[in-house]
């Protein structure tokens, strides 16, 4: 999924980036409030991880401005501020969650997935499609109790389609889910990953809507 990390501490930012990208997420980094505001205005993120103390302003003000603009993207505040009053202020400003540094990266990832699922209106994590058993929380797929191994990018594309199940996603929307701003994108990348998924999961799982995009019915 496409994520935005708003963090000005370089070492911590790259540690989080590395962990999330290894899971197949496309992650943009905003080191300051202005970059964060600009990114949130133009990209459709599944979740935003937001620091409060930024070099050019307050993360809290960024959040308030986006909520006033009608942006309902899930936001997890990740900060060193651990006072109850700070937590209350963050949640009252529109944050969906609040974690205090230092935090466990696996827990952060689980929180991101949970908030993204709820925003999609899909709280269930384990379900079946045709002869496949799918666990979105664990990013795993089985057929007849045998696990089907997907690469991080293959899962990212499949998960994007699962999150929009029953709706067509166009090529641009899928590219946005797979790639960050600084990623090099080959023109046929989406088609390549769809082809690989069909080979592994079955041709009927992902349908093509000619001229529109792809759908998991």
From TrEMBL:
Residues 124-217 bind DNA. SMART domains: REC, Trans_reg_C. It holds the Pfam family Trans_reg_C. PROSITE patterns: OMPR_PHOB (PS51755), RESPONSE_REGULATORY (PS50110). GO terms for molecular function: phosphorelay response regulator activity; transcription cis-regulatory region binding. One of its GO terms (biological process) is regulation of DNA-templated transcription. One of its GO terms (cellular component) is cytosol. The modification 4-aspartylphosphate is found at residue 51. Keywords: DNA-binding, Phosphoprotein, Transcription, Transcription regulation, Two-component regulatory system. InterPro entries: CheY-like_superfamily, OmpR/PhoB-type_DNA-bd, Sig_transdc_resp-reg_receiver, WalR-like, WH-like_DNA-bd_sf. Residues 124-217 form the OmpR/PhoB-type domain. Residues 2-116 form the Response regulatory domain. PANTHER family: REGULATOR OF RPOS, TWO-COMPONENT RESPONSE REGULATOR ORR33. This is Transcriptional regulatory protein BasR. It comes from Roseovarius halotolerans.
């Amino acid at each position: 999924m496409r994520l935005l990390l708003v963090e000005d501490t370089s070492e911590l930012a790259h540690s989080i980036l590395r962990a999330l990208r290894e899971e197949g997420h496309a992650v943009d980094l905003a080191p300051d409030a202005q970059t964060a505001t600009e990114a949130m205005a133009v990209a459709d993120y599944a979740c935003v991880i937001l620091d409060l103390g930024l070099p050019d302003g307050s993360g809290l003000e960024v959040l308030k401005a986006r909520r006033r603009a009608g942006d309902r993207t899930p936001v997890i505040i990740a900060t060193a501020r651990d006072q109850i009053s700070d937590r209350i202020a963050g949640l009252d400003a529109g944050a969906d969650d609040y974690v205090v540094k230092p935090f466990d990266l696996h827990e952060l990832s689980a929180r991101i997935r949970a908030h993204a699922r709820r925003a999609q209106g899909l709280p269930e994590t384990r379900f079946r499609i045709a002869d496949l058993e799918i666990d979105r929380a664990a990013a795993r797929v089985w057929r007849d109790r045998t696990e089907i191994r997907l690469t991080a990018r293959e899962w990212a594309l499949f998960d994007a389609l699962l999150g929009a199940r029953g709706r067509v996603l166009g090529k641009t929307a899928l590219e946005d889910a797979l790639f960050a701003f600084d990623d090099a994108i080959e023109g046929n990348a989406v088609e390549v990953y769809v082809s690989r998924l069909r080979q592994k999961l079955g041709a009927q799982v992902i349908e093509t809507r000619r001229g529109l995009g792809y759908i998991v019915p």
